[in-house]
Amino acid sequence: MNKEDGLNRAIENYLDKTPGSKDFFSQAKEVMPGGVTANIKSFDPYPVIMKKGNGAYLYDLDGNEYIDYLLSYGALMHGHGHPEINKAIHNQIEEEGTSLFGTPHLLEVEMGKKIQELYPSMELLRYTNSGTEATLLANRMAYAYTGKNKIAKFEGHYHGGYDQVLLSVNPPIDEAGLPHKPNAVIESSGVDSYHQEHTIILPFNDLDATAEILSKRRDEIAAVVLEPIQGGFIPAEQSFMAGLRKVTEELDILLIFDEVKTGFRLGLGGAQSLYKIKPDITALGKVVGGGFPVGMIGGKKEVMMVSSPKASSDVFDSSQSLKSSAKEVLFHSGTYNGHPSILAAGLATIHHLEKEINHVFAITNQLKEGINKLFAKRGVAMQSIGLGSIFNVVITEQDKILNYRQLQQSNFRIRKEIDFRLLCEGIYTKPLNRYSLSTVHGKKEINRTLDAYDRVLTQVF
């Protein structure tokens, strides 16, 4: 059986296993464009339609049970329906009488102080409703503070679904330019070419080339934004990160850490605690919401204060229309910012994680080591790349994966076949996606996963 036949057979088995998802997906396409309400949830020939979640498990429309390693792209650090999180939300509504005040409230400060304890770089902070909103606000804050109107991001890094950063996330190599001087490649229809001139693309883990680009454009670039761990699993080298911090300080360019994926998954203090580097602004999301939509940014006091409201600076204050100075203040608002129920869920998430984070790291290492041994037994070159509670299975003969372009040299076809075969074995992640683990994954789930891997690798190799 050749490689293409192997993938086709794996997909055929998937079709046989999930007829309910196939039928429902045809209905979904009558309601939503392409059958989904977020493009990331889609994959060919159709995604699994889930009906129930419990702990480390998901259940689809056909009654198939899966051990969940997607965990809503890493957001569910305690799995599905954790009782402590459910209890926290119930208690908040019962005790406070509402799920939404529309005014300042106590949990905003309680959560804020906890975040400041774990992320000392976040001297002041603001809440948003998603990681995407958090990085968007971080960029605007950089513009407002520096007076400069461009940002720099790294090739292969994702910061949300808005125009400024939907460039060179997953660019075709033949369009991507030179490795040391990447092109800005638009990744979505509807993004104006304006952003190719205002978003500068940098080469990840290449300090010399990055420093050269930043130095030449220091008067234009307000901030460098990056995922300290690209895609949640390709780490920045320590020397690169230290050098980047030094260069940005010398050039008066702000450094923004997008820790939406890495916050609480590499440690309670995120990637910045691991690298021992303080960014000027940090964006958080995912885990800190306990399974509910949340984001936040925080940073140096003098930077964050550009969003502090002043007299006559509210764009909605019609009584001040004749003397408004709203344009002097960075505008940031949102009805659901600092939502009480979500902050209650987030605090419960953090408190439980403080007790269980070492378990998550230990169980993640067991899974990684087990997968490594199964590939090695068959003489297949691969790497389980990642830190903390996130990793990815990369089938490659390269010694080390340091950036997007090196990742593109791995064998995606074989990885996809493995993923589809694992779906039929009850092991869930979206094909080609990274693995995330939770406090409710244990030895039983790891052993079952490794048994499934053993069977699948026997079929593939």
From TrEMBL:
Q: What protein name applies here? A: Aspartate aminotransferase family protein
What is the required cofactor set for this protein? pyridoxal 5'-phosphate
What InterPro entries is this protein classified in? Aminotrans_3 (IPR005814), Aminotrans_3_PPA_site (IPR049704), PyrdxlP-dep_Trfase (IPR015424), PyrdxlP-dep_Trfase_major (IPR015421), PyrdxlP-dep_Trfase_small (IPR015422)
Keyword Transferase applies: yes
Q: From which lineage does this chain's organism come?
A: Bacteria, Bacillati, Bacillota, Bacilli, Bacillales
Organism, by scientific name, is: Halobacillus campisalis
PANTHER family xrefs: GLUTAMATE-1-SEMIALDEHYDE 2,1-AMINOMUTASE, GLUTAMATE-1-SEMIALDEHYDE 2,1-AMINOMUTASE 1, CHLOROPLASTIC-RELATED
| Pfam families noted in UniProt | Aminotran_3 (PF00202)
Q: Which SUPFAM superfamilies match?
A: PLP-dependent transferases
Q: Which family does it belong to?
A: Belongs to the class-III pyridoxal-phosphate-dependent aminotransferase family.
Gene Ontology molecular functions: transaminase activity
Task: Tell me the domain of life.
Answer: Bacteria
The alphabetical list of record keywords is:
Aminotransferase, Pyridoxal phosphate, Transferase
